[in-house]
Every structure is written in C-alpha cells, then in structure tokens.
Structure to design on (150 residues):
C-alpha cells in the first residue's frame, strides 16, 4: 500500500476541498450549494476553536477528507467531538485507509483533550457501519434528532 498522510486543510485548499465535498454530498444525496459551502468552509478553516479539516493524501494526491467539529458535553465529562464529514474517493475504499483515518482522528482527538468522539452513519450504509463497529463505535440506543433553526 502507498503511504497515507494527513494534512490540516487551509483556506488555500478550498478548491480541492469543495470538489471533494461536492462528491460526498452527491454520494450521500445531500444538498450542495457551492457558494454556501465555500462560505461555511472558509469560516470553519479560519476558526480553530470550531474543529479541524484534514485532507487525506496518498503520496501527494488528495483522496479524501475528514472534518472534526468540537463541542463540550457534561455527560461525556468535557470536550467532545463529532466526525461531521468523512469521505474517501471510491477507488480508495476497502483498502484499510478508512480504518487508518479513524485511528488518526482518535489520536488527534486525544491530543486535543477530547473525551468522546461521535459520528453518524446512514441506516442503509452497511459498509460504513461495519467499519465503524469494527473499530469500536457503538450505538447508544438513542436517535439523533435535528431541528434546523434557519
């Protein structure tokens, strides 16, 4: 396997990041508006208190990304984090890169003082569910409910 590395994304990476986010949103049937995504990502990339974006690279080719958002939880005894988006281009899946990326995210969270790491996965995405369960993520007998405020 080629070398996989992770690089913190900067505003200079917005073009490739937007390309990957568009692919991910199309894949997951999520809305994508380039101007809105550009604005949200630019804000996120310039405020480290919100979290981090890493570009996943094989050698020097960007093959995906992972976005970690930071929060705080009384239940989890302090800082917690959420894997907001995690995307690998299709030809790089099923090669252990996802497992390696999750381990990287967990190590990064520990360095940031994060007590718990959360993620969500679609009910019909069996491959992702197997990956997440294999590396220790568990259901918590709760539903994630969301209310948009704008």
């Amino acid at each position: 396997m080629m070398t996989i590395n992770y690089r913190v994304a900067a505003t200079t990476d917005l073009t490739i990041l937007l390309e990957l986010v568009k692919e991910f949103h199309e894949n997951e049937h999520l809305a994508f508006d380039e101007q809105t995504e550009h604005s949200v990502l630019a804000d996120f990339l310039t405020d480290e208190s919100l979290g981090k974006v890493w570009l996943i690279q094989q050698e020097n080719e960007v093959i995906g990304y992972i976005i970690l958002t930071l929060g705080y939880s009384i239940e989890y005894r302090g800082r917690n984090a959420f894997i907001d988006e995690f995307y690998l281009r299709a030809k790089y899946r099923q090669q252990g890169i996802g497992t390696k990326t999750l381990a990287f995210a967990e190590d990064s969270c520990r360095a940031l003082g994060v007590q718990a790491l959360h993620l969500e996965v679609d009910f019909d995405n069996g491959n992702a569910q197997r990956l997440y369960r294999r590396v220790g993520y568990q259901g918590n007998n709760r539903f994630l409910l969301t209310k948009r405020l704008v």
Summary: Residues 97-111 form the longest helix (15 residues). The chain is about 35% helix and 25% strand.
